[in-house]
Specification:
This protein has 511 residues and is α/β, with parallel strands linked by helices. 38% of the residues lie in helices and 11% in strands. The strands form 3 sheets. It has a 5-stranded mixed β-sheet with strand order 2-1-3-9-4. Strands 6-7-5-8 form a 4-stranded mixed β-sheet. This is ABC transporter substrate-binding protein.
Length: 511
């Protein structure tokens, strides 16, 4: 990782990977046309932007990019793949049945022989590549995502006002939730607060560690892994929420609240228990809370110690989306190398304290200081509306946000790099420190290694069933005594076959 860490090494500061600078007399003479299809959320750079020209000058590649709204992307991609006219490079948004089908049909170029030749490909852990191998082969390069998942957060100022300690188990958490509901924690003399912010589909999960999460953590009496949604840890969570609901300590109309509405319940100062994570938080929500209540203080809840002694969250998959190359490129090795060179260069990690105009690699990929970004209080901030001037938008992986392949979650320093206000930075820093201190046994979900046909076909429907029945349990419409009945019905509807396929796959992966 030394070559791609940017840790003061020459490659990171002069362009890296031997890539010539714009205007270099040694710039490539042959220009490769590279078709690129990607999904987008809010930013759709001009296909002929200055960033494209910069890549052409630097790498000898003419990127012909097409960006499709993410909600329409799956349909668009299905049509393109069915036509047999796949562009040179295609982003895959979801690891679903279509990905496996297309890989098995030979649509993608196998990349196994290239992995060790590029630092950022080699840096990807085997446990991540194993999640999307098809017939033992690697057909894609993963886009980076941290393994951080959500942890609990709580109004520390409310705890302090009521003389309560940070909860360390679900009994204590329930007691705190009830106190937040009945004891005027914000000291405004009104009965206008409660404990758990909760929305439809029992979101957030309020799992205080892998033991209580939806991950495939627990085993049944026969030693087979089972989904956390029907496991004993989840049962404790639902029992806690049901007891809290009876006391008015859960969002009353949670069953019909969408995610934005659930966030509002917490950040408007009504609820006292929610979730947080180092990356992806909406800064305006938190700063909005501080405007309503300047003395508000939100703190992360340390992961609970589970009955089996574990303490930590399940890891996320470690990637978001995949980059695939067309199998038609097998007869054009020079073009393949050019694509991978560009891809690798755009993924190289540059430490947060080196993301400035003095680092030539960073300055180039971000479009230049004062053009694609500007320095604000010592931090590089992308300039809205200038994405077309930014080469990284076109460098053959997910655009909108630069996602270099970090050597660790901690190296990203999200509290410094991703947020602007000092208040938000301080809040996120507490979550990062909590993760470092209390995430002692992070859990790798073994189901990530397995593709289940039945789960792909019926998984969403079965999850909806379980969540619906558990929603009834929380609101008192179905007794907790029916927990095992719900699990058995899940199995009879197709869950048993999912368990068989997942467990058979886990065993095969270990051989």
């Amino acid at each position: 990782m030394a070559a791609c860490s940017g840790g003061g090494d020459k490659a990171a500061n002069d362009g890296g990977a031997g890539a010539p600078k714009t205007g270099d007399a040694n710039a490539p003479k042959k220009v490769h046309d590279i078709g690129f299809l990607n999904f987008a959320y809010t930013i759709f750079p001009d296909p002929n932007g200055k960033g494209v020209e910069a890549i052409k000058q630097k790498f000898g590649a003419n990127i012909k990019a097409q960006f499709v709204l993410q909600s329409d992307y799956k349909e668009k991609l299905n049509v393109i793949m069915a036509s047999g006219d796949m562009p040179d490079v295609v982003a895959i948004k979801d690891l679903d049945a279509n990905y496996y089908k297309w890989a098995k049909q030979g649509a993608f170029l196998p990349l196994d022989d290239y992995i060790d030749k590029y630092a950022t490909f080699k840096a990807v852990p085997k446990t991540i590549y194993d999640q999307f191998r098809v017939n033992g082969k690697i057909y894609s390069i993963p886009m980076y995502a941290p393994t951080y998942t959500f942890s609990g957060t709580i109004r520390q100022d409310w705890l302090d006002n009521l003389g309560l300690k940070m909860p360390t188990n679900y009994k204590e958490l329930l007691d705190v939730a009830i106190a937040f509901t009945k004891n005027d924690p914000d000291k405004n003399g009104k009965n206008d607060t409660y404990g758990f912010a909760l929305g439809q589909d029992i979101s957030p999960t309020h799992a205080m560690g892998a033991y209580w999460s939806p991950a495939w953590y627990h085993k049944d009496k026969d030693g087979n892994f089972m989904p956390g949604l029907i496991g004993p840890g989840r049962k404790e969570v639902i029992e806690t929420l049901a007891a809290a609901y009876k006391e008015g300590a859960v969002t009353k109309d949670f069953a019909v609240l969408n995610w934005a509405q659930t966030n509002k319940e917490f950040y408007s100062g009504k609820a006292g228990i929610f979730i947080g994570t180092p990356t992806g938080m909406v800064e305006e929500y938190y700063t909005g809370l501080l405007k309503v209540n300047p003395t508000a203080k939100v703190a992360p809840i340390p992961f609970f110690k589970a009955p089996d002694g574990s303490q930590g969250n399940p890891k996320g998959r470690g990637f978001f989306g995949l980059t695939t190359l067309s199998a038609k490129l097998k007869d054009d090795p020079d073009k393949v190398k050019k694509i991978l060179e560009i891809l690798d260069y755009g993924r190289q990690f540059i430490p947060v304290d080196q993301r400035n105009p003095q680092n030539q690699q960073f300055d180039w990929i971000m479009g230049g200081n004062g053009v694609g970004y500007e320095m604000v209080d010592g931090k590089a901030v992308p300039k809205a509306g200038q994405e077309a001037n930014t080469p990284i938008q076109y460098m053959l992986q997910r655009h909108e946000f630069w996602k270099p392949w970090a050597p660790s979650d901690e190296a990203n320093e999200y509290s410094k790099a991703s947020y602007n206000s000092k208040e938000m930075q301080a809040f996120i820093a507490t979550i990062e420190q909590m993760e470092k201190t209390y995430n002692k046994t992070p859990y790798d979900d073994p189901s990530y290694l397995v593709y289940s046909e039945t789960q792909a076909a019926k998984g969403s429907e079965l999850d909806k069933f379980v969540l619906g029945e558990q929603t009834k349990m929380i609101s008192g419409q179905r007794p907790m005594a029916d927990w095992d009945k719900v699990a058995e019905e899940w199995k009879s509807r197709g869950g048993a076959q999912i368990m068989k396929e997942i467990n058979d796959g886990i065993k095969a992966a270990k051989k």
